[in-house]
Predict the 3D structure of the following.
Amino acid sequence: MPRAMADRSEREFDRARTVIPGGVNSPVRAMQAIGRNPIFIKSGSGAEIEDIDGNTYVDYVCSWGPLIAGHAHPEVIESVTAAAADGTSFGAPTEAETDLAEEIVQRVPAAEMVRMVNSGTEAAMSALRLARGATGRDKVLKFAGAYHGHVDALLAQAGSGLATAAVPASPGVTEGQAADTVIVPWNSEEQVEEAVAEHGAELAAIVAEPIPANMGVVPPNKGFLELLRELSTSCGALLVFDEVITGFRVARGGAQELYDVTPDLVVLGKVIGGGVPAAAYAGRSDLMCQLAPEGDVYQAGTLSGNPLAVAAGLATLKLLDEGAYEQLGRYTDRLAQGLAAAALSAGVPVYVASSTGLLTVFFSSQPVHDYEGASSCRLENFAEFCRALQDRGIYAPPSQFEAWFPSLAHGEKELERTLEAAEHAFEAVA
Ligand code: PMP
């Protein structure tokens, strides 16, 4: 099947490249990993997006996670519109900010108090500062292939766009910043125990995505999160779960609820802003009260708790009751099973990993448990698969190291369209 018409997207990409580095405002949008130029989007509704050439796609990027209710959900749009009509920003407290904080405290086990910020990066950076301030220690333990935003100290062996572009770390990160980061392979009990034995007394935090989704989706082995909890407590480091992706997605209270392991601090983003920029960090009151103006760990933000973002977040969370997670879980399971079956019948060895609302098709014959496993996938096969899906109207994340994000707007029709396209796409790879 020929590639969908892309004349206008190509022209717009040429125009964008002259004034925006690489033509995009975030690297993975560039689609370099699948050898394509980006598709410029005009609009979205429910599970579907339309590009500026008039092609439509079932969208599994969904803005990389925030749109758990789908595009332009009427209740979200109504709330944001009403908030905008009352003024877009005040730089003073509003009642809705407390409503959102209460909703988060009610849902997320670790959250006794919440501070709103504007992006996941800012939330991770701020949580790290708080962990360092509270413990008086400098070092941080993170996992290879985990991504916590483009925070200097956490960029080493990070997943997401860095994994996609095979960048081990970034120029511009000082040696001092990198020296404070200890990196361990995900799911390796032995190596995390060794690292804590060696550096435990200097560790401010163990930072983990409880279900990593930036090296593709790589759930924790049984007992691994419990081990992280035990080790953090025993060495006096804080356990920080980065639930920017998993928060409000894999369960009402995030992965910490699903696995019943409570961290000291939690980093939240994406769904919390319902598609408008917002993020937060939250945790034990005695820690959160060390933030200014209550305490002396400084962090601030002109647009933090922005009325539009808070309105979108509250409207989105209102849609996320237990029934919503059952629905999303069922869709994810059927999608995962359907994709695995399509690959099998085409004779393409893949490993499909999933959790409610998250999925990755690894082009690997082996189960993937860590970054090394994800990095050994057949990336050319992945690229071909992804291009073939695109040509049949399925917009999947254009990187082996990212998750698919099904939403509540994905139903029978989308499942059928996706699996039919996938059969052809796997045949193209075989
Ligand atoms: N943490 C995780 C787990 C993420 O997946 C991301 C972004 N995908 C971030 C932090 C950074 O969030 P943002 O892009 O909003 O800065």
Notes: The two ends are 16 Å apart (CA to CA).
